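User: quick one, sequence for these tokens?
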């Protein structure tokens, strides 16, 4: 099913019933008192108790079997290239594998692994527009890949950003991966991007591959991107005092990635918690990369931060859902009426010592996924990648 018309959203009426635990994605109220969700034509239309919700005329009915439903996970930092193939480790099907790890939306931080990537202004603009179009047309497995994230170069002028925005480009790739590595130039171009509605991120920390450079706290704070990309390094992190300076010196998103320094991720988490700023924490894998691709990377981050960082699991899931959706103005990531019907259904992994899914994640285990849904359409059933769930959701009517 990977490649056929994945953008289709209906018409259809999806009912998910018998939900045991409903995670909202919202830090202010991470658990909802509801056991039923209805979605029509790809959007959530009702959330509540079965007796209070009209569940008639469903085209698809899913029995969650008392397990957990959460918003589909969002990977805030990926490096796609073309379709479901990456040249970085020469892998095919990596996006579909992420779907089996619960990821339903991905944000490109630059299509930097494109063989022969153009660095002249006309070429980089053309490539960004091409990537945006191509990934919006082809969604591997149904996964929404927001791509078309140009890596800025010193020769760019304001009109280039205006032109990119008019052509549908909504993101910048990581500042620092191209020729712009100084604070003043980065700040000027990030300002142009923002003026035309283009979001920005930056490569924080030491170089990731030969040719990329060190981006320290002074450049990060001066550039003032919307997201502090991999504040825990990609992979080499800044020293703790610089990470603290960044957390305290701005109000931007604090992105923690799997392909980064785990100790620095925990330091960032504790700093943000001290500041009462956990809503700034968002998660990515920063894959494909030198350490490969991680289909379970977002789940592993949730589990690592919850267990070692001592964050209740229901809040750690917000880092990978609602926080990212809000920061990046996405219409998914939260269980709210009107949002995209993108869900992951999961349960405590078989033989995990926790007595429920939240306890098992807080003990450092991964949950087992039994279903993913994007735009109200069931995309996968029992995950081929997670440990098996104790109880699984099933389609009981419809197709
Ligand atoms: Zn990076």
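Assistant:
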């Amino acid at each position: 099913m990977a490649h056929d018309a994945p953008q289709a959203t209906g018409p259809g009426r999806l009912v998910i019933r018998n939900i045991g635990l409903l995670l909202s994605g919202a830090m202010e109220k991470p658990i909802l008192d509801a056991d039923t969700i209805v979605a029509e034509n790809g959007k959530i239309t009702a959330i509540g108790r079965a007796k209070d919700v009209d569940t008639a005329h469903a085209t698809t009915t899913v029995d969650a079997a008392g397990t957990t439903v959460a918003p589909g996970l969002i990977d805030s930092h990926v490096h796609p290239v073309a379709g479901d193939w990456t040249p970085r480790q020469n892998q095919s099907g990596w996006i579909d594998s992420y779907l089996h790890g619960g990821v339903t939306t991905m944000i490109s931080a630059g299509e930097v692994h494109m063989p022969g990537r153009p660095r002249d202004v006309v070429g980089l603009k053309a490539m960004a527009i091409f990537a945006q179009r191509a990934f919006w047309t082809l969604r591997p497995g149904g996964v929404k890949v927001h791509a078309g994230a140009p890596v800025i170069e010193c020769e760019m002028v304001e009109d280039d950003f205006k032109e990119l925005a008019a052509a549908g480009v909504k993101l910048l790739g990581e500042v620092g991966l191209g020729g712009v590595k100084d604070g003043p130039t980065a700040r000027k171009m990030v300002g142009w991007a923002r003026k035309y509605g283009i979001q920005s991120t930056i490569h924080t920390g030491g170089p990731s591959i030969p040719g990329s450079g060190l981006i320290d706290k002074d450049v990060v704070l001066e550039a003032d991107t919307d997201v502090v990309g991999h504040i825990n390094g990609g992979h080499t992190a800044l020293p703790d005092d610089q990470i603290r300076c960044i957390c305290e010196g701005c109000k931007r998103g604090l992105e923690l990635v799997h392909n980064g320094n785990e100790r620095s991720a925990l330091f960032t988490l504790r700093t943000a918690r001290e500041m009462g700023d956990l809503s700034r924490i968002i998660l990515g894998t920063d894959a494909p990369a030198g350490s490969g691709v991680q289909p379970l990377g977002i789940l592993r981050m949730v589990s690592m931060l919850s267990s070692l960082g001592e964050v209740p699991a229901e809040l750690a899931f917000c880092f990978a859902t609602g926080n990212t959706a809000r920061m990046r103005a996405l219409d998914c990531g939260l269980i709210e009426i009107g949002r995209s019907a993108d869900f992951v259904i999961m349960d405590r992994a078989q033989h995990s010592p926790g007595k429920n899914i939240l306890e098992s994640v807080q003990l450092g285990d991964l949950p087992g996924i039994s279903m993913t849904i994007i735009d109200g359409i069931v995309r996968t059933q029992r995950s081929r990648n997670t440990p098996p769930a104790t109880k699984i959701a099933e389609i009981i009517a419809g197709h």
